Amino acid sequence: MLGIIIGVSAVIAMVGVGSGAQARVAEQIQSLGSNLIIVLSGSTNSAGVRLGMGSQLTISEDDATAIAREVSSVQAAAGSVRGNAQGIKKVPFTVIGLLSRKGQNSWGQDQDDIILVPLSTAKKKVLGVSQANARAVNSISVKVRPGEDMAEAEDQIRVLLRQRHRLQPFQDDDFWLRNLSEILQTQEESSRVMTYLLAAIASVSLLVGGIGIMNIMLVSVTERTREIGLRMAVGARRRHILLQFLIEAVTLSLIGGIMGIALGVAGSEAISYFAEWRTLVAPESIVLAFGFAAAIGIFFGFYPARKASRLDPIEALRYE
Fold first, then answer.
1. Which of 206, 210, 232, 267 has CB atoms 3.0–4.6 Å from 300's, for a disulfide?
2. Is 166 left (phi over 0), alpha (psi -120 to 50) or beta?
3. pTM for the whole thing?
């Protein structure tokens, strides 16, 4: 029963840790905006050489306005420019709020070293404007309405921008689209795989506990051979003996399962408290662990029970 207790508690605790990590990752990515599509300026060719993404400002504020107006699944679209400049300098500003601390992003950029100002102000007073197009922007952030298909919205935006930029079918896009929901999906899949891995590792303990129950029941059959013979002698049939030992095995598993559930939930809370690691114990994992414990009792208890039911009553009564 100790093996079942350890196995069930390990499964619940490990699944709780994995689920908590998965939920945390999802929250962090959703805070970036999982319903966002980012439109970035494309590249340009110079002397037969293709330069990098953003080497030419190919999108504009007018593109942002058109996306918000003509794509039905889009809730809002806003252009932005970026650059380096000294804050306040000769231009007076009023600070209206502070961003929460975030640290570096995935490519090492310090997200706490930025200042956000109105687009028109940035162009006229701080960064200046593009010589080729005063309405040009570096990127457009597009917010898709809740419940809308992100892939479909992305396709509609691509078609609209190609029309506005008068691109022929044989020409490549002069812009780039980035769908943040793809990042969320990838992170969720990675976390889900890790949760399954942790659960599989913990399930080994349940398997070991089941083998332990089978061994104990086999010893029990040997030690209670005369009892089995006596029961058969007074009228017990094979199915009665089989049912008796099977019930004993399942009872051991279920009691161990209940104790393991309590220990697993307590262990998850302890991990959350002492390690400051978020855990999430779902009812489904408790039901799964409990059902697994019962199944192990039936599976590993069947062979000893069958062996007991097939004993010869005469030989069993003679057993010393």
1. 210
2. left
3. 0.55
